[in-house]
Amino acid sequence: MTTLSHCPHLGNLATTIALSMTLLLAAHGDVKAEVRVEAISSPAGTTAKIFDGTAPIFEAIEPNAGLIVVQPMSQTLVSFQTTDDSNGTLTFGGGQAPGLAIEQSFRSICPGLIERTVAVTAKADHRYFLNLGWKSVGTGPFYSFIGEEPNTKSYSPGCGGPEFKEQSSQTFPMAGYRIGDMFYGVIGDTPGLWENRSFLKFDVERRTLSIATGDGSPKRVISIPRDLDATTEYRATFDGWQHIERGETQLFKTYIFSSPVKSLYDIQLATHLALANGQGFNHSALEAILRNTSYLLLRRNLLRPESDYLFISGVGYGWKQWVSDGFWMSRGLDNPEFDSAAMAAVFFDRINYEDNAQYYLIWACLVKRAGVEVDPRTLRRAYDFIRAHEKNGLYIPPRLVPDKKILKTYHDQLPYDDDDAPSSNQGFHCGALLAAQELGFPVTDEDITRAIDGYRSMYNKTGGYMATSLKQQEHVGQDSLYGEVLTYAVFGRKLLPDDIVRTHLETSVRIQSPHGMRVISKADGELLEGHSGSYVFGGSWFLNDGANYLDGLIHGMDPDWVDEQLLWRLEKELAWMPAFHESISTITGKPHGHHLYSWNSGFWWLRRETRRRLGQTGPDPLEAALDARLGVSRSNGHLILEPCQATLRPTEPVEAH
């Protein structure tokens, strides 16, 4: 261990201590990057500098400022008084701001990736925020996740919903720049661990990239407008400061990474791999992208009192959680703490429509199996709700808005008669009855059998497909099977006969669009009258398509054929950017709605649990095949990008939302 204390007698002489870690990244046919941290000592103190070989790539955002602390009455350029290099971590100590003690450390995770952790300890109660950014030494163009940033611009991945006047299209808190075929970036942690305060600024004139934990804005009331949510109020006071109490320590992580790149797609994929390597979501690119999505959509539950955390569906939707999306993101993140917190965020006005009560009961089973108690009042109300809207085993969802026949399934704009039972909901209803039985509610085996019989009755034998509902037999429903797949993943029980699922899939593959299955279509696969081929109006939704193919696996279809179809659909989803979308157009193939969209995260978990139930062990061949197309490989337990090996890349750019 070596320790350097700042010596004021050094004058202008800078003392450089190289971090003992040297990070080497080599890619086939690409530049090699040797990324390292050095501690630079000057009369003002010690700061960090990032190098690629001998060339500096990032330096202090301000001269002699390891970071910037902003408080209501002051701004402090923080330098450090000591460094300690031990156990692969370089720690800078002795940083000070009024009433705050500050320490930062740099740790090598893998070649091309360094984790930076800043610890702030309060000597008294304070408001503050940190600017954890850097000054770029190189002159290459700046990039955010969604594209090049040629002009000075600010974003807020944390405060990007309808609660705020200026909404943000940024989900990924990343800022970086490109020099030739190399990219150097900085990633902020999930906004959920920064009290939802995450701010980016690309200052082209000063060549600085800022990632801040606040913006210093004053306290005010924020709320989601009532016309954007039909169920309840979301309202709180909020400001742009971190709040810390005397004796408390708060931690803030960022990641510094490098990667060879040849396109914006490569920059986006390299960003995913860096965060996934930092978080341990790194068995494949598929896992990386999907679990990152859950992680980045985690938020503090600041507008409601029920829990500490929730999952938002996308940056444009605001700090609220839909039950189904929260469920699937919890499955994707696979973190017991956030899983139970997100479930606790659910309240009754969120479960008394569509299939939300069914999701809640299944979710309760999983949380309780993990040893966490659930709210018995909401649980009882969810159970009473599904039984009150059950007729002869069929779940008949009520209207949420009295004058409209919509908001009855996840694909909420599709209309169903008041006495109709959508097949999408019925699969979840069967699973919910199994969950209720496990949770101790008076559900009999006969009750479950009636629900399963009702589900099977929705099959159109003449057309060879599951209809969208009991009454709309002329319409194919591609959201009809994912409730069964979830039921199998959680309870190990198949609901439909093998021949129904196999025939439905064979029909679906025959009639699907060139870009995937239409969530609703005519029997021949054509769009319904007035439908656009996007969103719920005949768009293709990956979780629906993906679950359909998994159901084929469950019902004995050839695994190689299933994986071939899944790989084809994954290539359609990822054709424009390495992100899963709300839906893709079945006319153009282009994404519609939010990128890094919420519920797709659950596919990773659903695939894993299905394979486990079927006794399929070892590496997932689907993940390996997709990695090869994306130019991703795994070395020493971490994912690396090899752009020259990639075959899946867009032919034209697409705007992200």
Automatic annotation (TrEMBL):
InterPro entries: Terpenoid_cyclase/PrenylTrfase
Domain of life: Bacteria
SUPFAM superfamilies for the chain: Terpenoid cyclases/Protein prenyltransferases
Protein name as catalogued: Uncharacterized protein
Lineage, uppermost ranks: Bacteria, Pseudomonadati, Planctomycetota, Planctomycetia, Pirellulales
